Amino acid sequence: MKTSKQQRIAIIGGGASGIFAALRCAEVAKGKKINIDIRVFETTKRFLKKVRVSGGGRCNVTHHIFEVNNFCLNYPRGRKELLSPFQNFQAANTVEWFEERGVKLKHEGDGRMFPISDSSETIIDCFMQEARKYKIKLLTKMDVKSLKKLDDGKIFLFINDDESFIADSVLIATGSMPNGYKLARNLGHSTTEIAPSLFTFKIEDVILENLAGISFSQATLTLKIDGAKPFTQKGPLLITHWGLSGPALLKLSAWAAREMMHTNYKAKITVNWLGIENLNDGEKLLSTIKVKNTKTSVGKAYPNELTKRFWLQLLVKCEILKEKNWSEISKKELKLIMKNLFICELDVIGKSRFKEEFVECGGINLKEISFKTMESKICPGLYFSGEVMDIDGITGGFNFQSAWTSGWIAGNNLPLKK
Ligand SMILES: Cc1cc2nc3c(=O)[nH]c(=O)nc-3n(C[C@H](O)[C@H](O)[C@H](O)COP(=O)(O)OP(=O)(O)OC[C@H]3O[C@@H](n4cnc5c(N)ncnc54)[C@H](O)[C@@H]3O)c2cc1C
After folding, report:
1. N or C terminus of the chain with fewer C-beta within 10 Å?
2. End-to-end CA distance of the chain, in Å?
3. Is the dihedral of CA 366, 372, 378, 379 positive or negative?
4. Are residues 310 and 371 in the same domain?
5. Co-location of 169 and 280 in the same domain
6. pLDDT tens string for the chain (418 positions)?
């Protein structure tokens, strides 16, 4: 009996996307009875490092939005390109994929999805078990240094100092490691500007002093950066010991990632702490408090939605004594309170990495990739998936979903069609 020639697949990067692609590739090859040798080259000692630490060790696998148009709205970069891949493999498919392999996911109030075990090890164990089932070769301490396209169409991998491998097709799934971009450039690709995304803002202002830990459920934020259009976000906001954080602020940082880098993280942010857009409504709220509390000190009567500590600090910023009665508050002082409550302008003077979940924005130019297959439009046989591409999402499981989806599509196409 004639045996088919074995196809050799190289996956560079044993992170979320590379491993998922390897599993899908093996499954497809098995289904089509393609004789295949899949090798995952990982430069470090361990696979799936980010999966392990993600979501505070719980792994925020995806987000509970099963309508792809809405899902795409959560990608500052890659939103248009991901639309068609998500038609093929979206968050609902991720849930199904894990369930079929015995891992149940649950979703929290804010939409984030985790394994019911609340442990990222469950996800890693599932992947490792699948990899063993398909006999995928998982190789650690294998640093792919460069790539070369051979005349016969195959791709030569230079590994460590003295090893090599010749592959029929190659997937670059190196995440945000700079060497991954270099590998792609070796084969003619270009990269867009790389910038950190998902960071918190450093702000020094009296209104934030000693208030670390205080949160607001529906703040509106407007970020003004020199030379850019303003960015706006609404949602939960948190005061930290050195500025502002929380979901709304992290989203803002993702949308404005490049512009913020260009100004060295100097900008002006306007905070509407209660998210009351209509200033007339805001004025009414304060006037009602004033009228109802003429004999009460201003430090004791304040909007229900605010904490006392924040209100007292706001009065410090306005230079209004908290012992003063509401009846003594002048129009000018009322205006000052209004300004600091609804259009509080603060100077952003720097950034810090968000400890839980950060990504790089920028990567392989999306115009150079076919999103039907994840194959390079420049170098046939070369594929991309995950964060190495110029795609990034906001917090909440969107980055992993793009890693699974692009890995799944690459996995479908890595075995060559004969
Ligand atoms: C602390 C933290 C927590 C996070 N939590 C979440 C979360 O809960 N939910 C979410 O959606 N996103 C989260 N993210 C983002 C998410 O982890 C990434 O978007 C995702 O891991 C990207 O997958 P990837 O496979 O593209 O890259 P990675 O997971 O980074 O994997 C790339 C792999 O390639 C290897 N590699 C690189 N270059 C080479 C080379 N030349 N040769 C061989 N191997 C190489 C790297 O060592 C790495 O193992 C978090 C990120 C961080 C840093």
Report:
1. N
2. 19
3. positive
4. no
5. no
6. 455 689 999 999 999 999 999 999 999 999 999 999 999 999 999 999 999 999 889 999 999 999 999 999 999 999 999 999 999 999 999 999 999 999 999 999 999 999 999 999 999 999 999 999 999 999 999 999 999 999 999 999 999 999 999 999 999 999 999 999 999 999 999 999 999 999 999 999 999 999 999 999 999 999 999 999 999 999 999 999 999 999 999 999 999 999 999 999 999 999 999 999 899 999 999 999 999 999 999 999 999 999 999 999 999 999 999 999 999 999 999 999 999 999 999 999 999 876 656 788 999 999 999 999 999 999 999 999 999 999 999 999 999 999 999 999 999 999 976 5
Please report the atom of ligand 1 found closest to the CA of residue 50.
Answer: 17
Ligand 1 centroid, distance to 39 Cα (angstroms):
18
Report which protein residue has its CA nearest ligand 1's atom 52. Answer: 357
50 CA to middle of ligand 1, Å? 5
Give the amino acid at 321: L
Q: The domain spanning residue 165 has which CATH number? A: 3.50.50.60
**Alpha-helix runs per DSSP H in 37-146:** 49-57, 68-72, 79-88, 91-100, 120-133
What is the residue with the minimal CA distance to atom 5 of ligand 1? 54
Domain total in the chain: 2
Token duo for residue 327: 């009846």
Query: What is the reported pTM?
Result: 0.94
Q: Are residues 183 and 236 in the same domain?
A: no
Which residue, judged by its Cα, is nearest atom 41 of ligand 1? 144
Give the domain range for residue 218.
Answer: 199-353
Ligand 1 environment, Cβ below 6 A: 12-18, 41-44, 49-50, 53-55, 59-60, 142-144, 173-175, 177, 179-180, 356-359, 386-388, 397-400, 403
Both 295 and 313 in one domain: the answer is yes
Task: Give nearest CA residue, ligand 1 atom 14.
Answer: 357
Rounded CA separation 21/17 (Å) = 6
- Looking at the fold, whether 13 and 155 belong to one and the same domain comes out as yes
Residue nearest to atom 49 of ligand 1 (CA): 15
Find where tokens 């093929």 sit: 88
State whether 26 and 109 are in the same domain: yes
Q: Residue 118 is which amino acid?
A: D
